[in-house]
Specification:
This protein has about 60 residues and is of the alpha+beta class. Helices cover about 35% and strands about 20% of the residues. It starts with a helix and ends in a 5-residue tail after the last strand.
Length: about 60
């Protein structure tokens, strides 16, 4: 996914550009609320941002 996002894109108003992303992933488990799942994914995204550009981080379920 990150590799596909890093490919150059043509933006009519600006020319060629690049898109980057920091992605956080959380895995749903029985008994976890949607709010908790979102909190875990959000934390994983900020972990990815701390690790540098264009990273993916999976939530640590022990937090």
């Amino acid at each position: 996914m990150l590799e596909n996002l890093s490919a150059p894109v043509h933006l009519p108003a600006f020319g060629e550009g690049h898109i980057g992303a920091s992605i956080g992933v959380a895995v749903a488990e029985t008994g976890i609320s949607a709010a908790e799942l979102l909190r875990q994914a959000d934390q994983a995204m900020y972990d990815a941002k701390r690790e540098g550009r264009n990273r993916l981080s999976v939530a640590d379920r022990t937090r």
